[in-house]
Write a structure and sequence with these properties.
The protein is α/β, with parallel strands linked by helices. It is built from 13 helices and eight strands. It catalyses: glycerol + NAD(+) = dihydroxyacetone + NADH + H(+).
């Protein structure tokens, strides 16, 4: 059996770590293309100035337009060549990070997340959009980022909703890894190794990745609420440090090397419902986790544990929590059809999948979550 595991070359996390960014730039050369939204640069300009002076390096501003499109990637690649940039930095949220991955194409890449809203920073994949912001395609690179540098002081100063959303994304990691392992399905770590992607055979997950996925869930239950309280007050505490590591590192390595299943497919299906468009990725994933548990008829105790955890930190547990006040069976079928296309990860579930079964699980999960929430109020 062929197995695969992929991870960044170095992961560094701590309070004030952004001041060490210049050190990592210097390992590649003297200049770095900085891909970031102007607002994110403004939040950390002082730290950027300090680290540039301390380590004698230069940040080349890219005037990033905010969208990870093929056109913007091509522009920035030419811009980097024209300015002889020695490495690429993606600083901020998902769009800046994914654009940096595409520009670097697997070489000399430093990722600096300023929020812990998803598990994307550690992965070797990115999502491309059209210039208008519509989904275009997925991109995979030969390796994960060279360095992922996380300053927990900056994370703690961001709105708490980002951290909670990241916990929603991380909530999926163990349950999808378990389903993938039970079905002996392939994992993302075995996806394209480079330009000749057809030459890279698929692979199963490793025991190490599965162990990280299980630890991800444990850390959420043990630290989630206290981390939220810390973030509410812009404080860095051991619980917040643990959750930042959980959201970014454990979940990132877990999803990529241990597998995705129904949860992320249902998330993708939910985009068919207009009401969900104003909610974060992790918020929709959190509800989708309940759908997968219903779909696989997980033990009631486990389902209630997830509901209790989600409600304790403010994650969605029903469709109304993600902007869908009512839903017909036909609309549920539309969500299920989108979730069940051949390319989706839902087919990693360890049993046959039908559109009707997914639609029924979606509607049942909505009622279970809404009733559970109402009985606790």
């Amino acid at each position: 059996m062929r197995k695969a595991f992929i991870a960044p070359s170095k992961y560094v996390q701590g309070e004030g770590e952004l001041l060490n960014l210049g050190y990592f730039v210097k390992t590649f050369g003297k200049s770095a293309l900085l891909i970031a939204h102007k607002d994110d640069i403004g939040r950390v300009q002082s730290q950027l100035d300090q680290t540039a002076e301390k380590f004698g390096i230069e940040f080349i501003s890219s005037n990033f337009n905010g969208e990870c499109s093929r056109e913007e990637v091509a522009r920035l690649q030419e811009f980097a060549k024209g300015h002889n940039c020695d490495c690429v930095i993606g600083l901020g949220g998902g769009k800046a990070i994914d654009t940096a991955k595409c520009v670097a194409a697997g070489e000399a890449l430093i990722i600096v997340p300023t929020i812990a809203a998803t598990d994307a920073p550690t992965s070797h994949s990115a999502v491309l959009y059209t210039p208008e912001g519509e989904f275009d395609d997925y991109a995979y690179f030969k390796q994960s980022p060279s360095v992922v540098l996380v300053d927990t002081k900056i994370i703690a100063q961001a709105p708490t909703r980002f951290l909670v959303s990241g916990m929603g994304d991380a909530l999926s990691t163990y349950f999808e890894a378990r389903a993938t392992a039970n079905s002996f399905s392939n994992v993302n770590a075995g996806l394209p190794c480079g330009a000749n992607s057809g030459e890279c055979p698929p692979a199963k997950g490793t025991n190490a990745a599965y162990g990280m996925a299980k630890l991800c869930y444990t850390m959420l239950l043990e630290n989630g609420l206290n981390a939220k309280i810390a973030c509410d007050n812009n404080l860095v505490t051991p619980a917040l440090e643990n959750i930042v590591e959980t959201n970014i590192l454990l979940s990132g390595l877990g999803f990529e090397s241990a597998g995705l299943a129904a949860i992320h497919a249902v998330h993708d299906g939910l985009t068919a419902l207009e009401g969900t468009h104003h909610y974060f990725h992790g918020e929709k994933v959190a509800f989708s986790a309940i759908v997968q548990l219903v779909l696989e008829n997980a033990p009631t105790e486990e389902l209630y544990e997830v509901l209790d955890f989600s409600l304790s930190i403010g994650l969605p547990v029903c469709l109304a929590d993600i902007g869908v006040e009512s839903i017909s069976y036909e609309e549920a079928l539309a969500v299920a059809e989108k979730a069940c296309i051949p390319e989706e990860s839902i087919h990693s579930m360890p049993f046959p999948i039908t559109v009707e079964a997914v639609a029924s699980a979606l509607l049942a999960a909505d009622k279970i979550g809404a009733n559970y929430k109402a009985n606790l109020v």
